[in-house]
């Protein structure tokens, strides 16, 4: 199992580009891009902050991919 995120879907729902969404989350575009492309995952504290900013439960932001 691998932890993955739905940040790209959430960003599209907010109709923002990566720069705008990264600014909304308070991170740099380069780091955000790495999260969105599943190269690394945000830390738990960051996921909790993202959940608060986008007003979604954590479970709708990160999930376990059981196929990996």
TrEMBL record:
HTH cro/C1-type domain boundaries: 7-61
Gene3D superfamilies attached to this UniProt entry: lambda repressor-like DNA-binding domains
Superkingdom as given in the UniProt entry: Bacteria
Pfam families hit by this protein: HTH_3 (PF01381)
Single GO term (MF): DNA binding
Keyword line: DNA-binding
InterPro entries from the UniProt entry: Cro/C1-type_HTH, Lambda_DNA-bd_dom_sf
Protein name: Transcriptional regulator
